[in-house]
Design goal:
5-stranded antiparallel sheet, Beta-lactamase, 3-stranded antiparallel sheet, alpha+beta
């Protein structure tokens, strides 16, 4: 067992306190209730939040369940890219070309730009900032999906994986989801990144730097009142790094939120029938309820 796997085992074995913090008995009651109501309505819900310093579990709802996580799985891709940038064979400043086979619609700005080639680190920044699908596919082609999976396994992750490249349409021979993950593992992963323990401090810092560019504050982070386009510096004592995933019937977010009183790592995923706007908005409201509890805990 690697040192990283041993650290992960110690972390995930911490006592679970369901949804109540030990020092604040009513903490996370709002989020627990909101997610419970969604579960009753047929939404598949998984969530976990832990104190960043102590590892104490603040919220735990089916956090062992493997859920679709859409672009959240690209955190694993960014870890592999950050590690590869120090590899002499890969190079510190590789320029990568896009091809027609890499094309994928929906999110991302590169598909609207004229530049046919960009440095790998710039593509990673596009993935961190806006879940850029084209940049994701070019990076997957450059480092290899097998290498991303091997890296995840070396970290001790058994329930979280980047399964495939981004596709506009998924056929019967394709992976059914872009990525999957459990809230327990993803919360551990974000905690370890924040502590500089994923590969090493330099790789962890590089990944966090890319994630800090994230502009999607529509889910959990909607409760924090931050500027979606600029939040790399503390704002009213809050500092956020997060990654979201969005697909048909899938919403997911992982992150680390630091405040004046405490820091937390969190992961929330929902899988639902996106049959109407009210159904979708109820899911979004559930994410925000968790965010309000996180804000109350750290600020």
């Amino acid at each position: 067992m690697t040192a990283q796997s041993q650290r992960r085992s110690r972390h995930v074995a911490a006592p679970v306190g369901k949804h109540r913090g030990l020092d604040a008995p009513e903490t996370f009651g709002r989020g627990f209730h909101a997610l419970g109501e969604l579960a009753i309505a047929g939404v598949q819900v998984s969530a976990r939040a832990t104190d960043l310093a102590t590892g104490r579990v603040l919220l735990s709802i089916d956090d062992h369940v493997v859920m679709p996580t859409a672009s959240v799985g690209t955190v694993l891709l960014l870890i592999e890219v950050a590690a590869k940038l120090r590899d002499a064979d890969f190079g510190a400043y590789p320029i990568l070309d896009r091809t027609n086979d890499d094309a994928a619609g929906s999110s991302g700005i590169w598909q609207h730009l004229q530049a046919p080639s960009l440095p790998a680190a710039d593509l990673a920044a596009l993935v961190g900032a806006g879940n850029d699908n084209l940049a994701t596919n070019v990076l997957i082609r450059a480092v290899g999906l097998a290498a991303v999976r091997t890296r995840a396994e070396s970290l001790g992750l058994t329930r979280s994986s980047l399964l495939d490249r981004v596709r506009d349409h998924r056929g019967p021979d394709d992976a059914p989801q872009l990525s999957v993950g459990s809230a327990k593992e993803l919360t551990w992963l974000l905690t370890a990144l924040a502590r500089g323990e994923i590969v090493d401090a330099d790789v962890s810092a590089r990944v966090l730097g890319w994630l800090s560019l994230g502009t999607d504050l529509s889910l959990v982070a909607s409760a924090f009142g931050l500027n979606p386009l600029s939040h790399r510096e503390p704002d009213h004592g809050l500092l956020l790094v997060n990654k979201t995933g969005t697909d048909a019937g899938v919403r997911s977010e992982v992150g680390v939120l630091r405040g004046p009183r405490a820091g937390v790592a969190y992961a929330v995923s929902m899988y639902f029938s996106d049959s109407s706007l009210p159904a979708r908005l109820a899911v979004v409201d559930g994410f925000r309820a968790v965010g309000l509890d996180l804000l109350e805990y750290v600020h």
